[in-house]
Amino acid sequence: MQRSLSQLSWKSLTRPWQEIDWFLLLLLIGLTSIGGLMIRSTQVNQGETSYWWQQLVTGGIGLAIAFFIARQRYEGLTRWKWIIYGLTNLSLVAVMLTGTESGGAQRWISILGFNVQPSEFAKLGLIITLAGILHERTASTLPAMVKALGITALPWILVFLQPDLGTSLVFGAIVLSMLYWANAKLGWLVLLISPMVSAIIFNLYLPAWFFWVGAMAAIAWYTVPWRWYSMVGAGVINLVSARLGQILWGLLKDYQKDRLILFLDPDKDPLGGGYHLIQSRIAIGAGEIWGRGLHQGTQTQLNFIPEQHTDFIFSAIGEELGFIGAIFVVISFWLICLRLVIIAQNAKDNFGSLLAIGVLAMVVFQVLVNIGMTIGLAPVTGIPLPWVSYGRSALLTNFISIGLVESVMNHRHRLRF
């Protein structure tokens, strides 16, 4: 009798969350714990002991918020999408007017003594707004796709002007993924990114650039209405983008140029722009299979790697936990992404499915770029590793995003009367 009562009380306690993905939450708790552990290891010899417990406390608050959101019905957000979009843009404008500058970028607002980074929350605001728009009308037509791109343009420009190149790239990954999931033709998405690719190829290999321009003209012919006009337009845009790319390149800060170039050969400037990448690769290689152990990494403990508790936290993991620890983190992210895909597929409506895909795109892009830059496969863009890197705004954004996805999972069954 006592056992049945205890089972009944447990069921009544968990009933509001009984349909959520518990495995997904366990993975996030594990990654946040590893993040706190590694942040403490990177800072203990520098006399800074507050970052790690701030990370864990923020993670606990974020987890509580995720549980609260998972209990609510996510469908109500469709009525608030324009308010969320307006608040997102207002917060980004406030950064430009009253924000705190650090490291050559103005990205933070001081609220009650805490530095808040609105661009992190703007990613979630964009996901909700696009999901609401594409839920009403899919991207299977050009006007619908152009509308989604127009909505993305304003917050993207505001973030780019801070300047925050990394977050602006995340915006691009989010909108392209959500458009694809909302039935936009693959050819349209290729044409959308073709000017940027054309600008890059033009400066690398001229014959390949001519081939690319011809290929884009052919794709426009077969996928876009008004074939002749679209074919000529695609060709002209890709031709002009080569010069436009040079103009935009001149607008970038010197440190941004270094980040985009030196990952190909960091030894060209080993004491300047290539320093991060060289030291990061040394640290990861020094970890070998099992790692040097907590507080034992030479690169980590002697502070050879700048920003190792934020952007380069994976370098500390590779050195002190070795290949085993690094591959555990990678597999955890793979499982998280797998769960997000399953939730998107099983959502009861397009809005919930698009929310899950938007969060998936945000996580995948940040993980690939962050880990890629620490091992020399991507430029240094200042993108943190989700749930692991130190950053209160980023951590809260990630947990709130998962709370929305868990709400999709928790309410995936249609109401029965």
Features:
single chain, mainly alpha, 17 helices, globular
Summarize the structure.
With 417 residues, the protein is mostly helical.
Describe this structure in words.
This protein is mainly alpha-helical and 417 residues long. It has one domain (20-410). It contains 17 helices and 3 strands. It has helices at residues 2-14, 22-43, 51-71, 81-98, 118-136, 142-160, 165-181, 186-202, 206-223, 227-251, 254-261, 275-287, 298-301, 313-320, 322-346, 350-374, 392-410; strands at residues 100-102, 105-111, 114-116. Strands 1-2-3 form a 3-stranded antiparallel beta sheet, covered by helices on one side. The chain is globular, with a radius of gyration of 23 Å.
End-to-end gap:
33 Å
Helicity, as a percent range: 55-70%
Question: What is the helix tally?
Answer: 17
- How many structural domains in the coordinates? 1
Task: Give the helices and strands, then pairings.
Blueprint: H1 2-14, H2 22-43, H3 51-71, H4 81-98, E1 100-102, E2 105-111, E3 114-116, H5 118-136, H6 142-160, H7 165-181, H8 186-202, H9 206-223, H10 227-251, H11 254-261, H12 275-287, H13 298-301, H14 313-320, H15 322-346, H16 350-374, H17 392-410
Antiparallel strand pairs: 1-2, 2-3
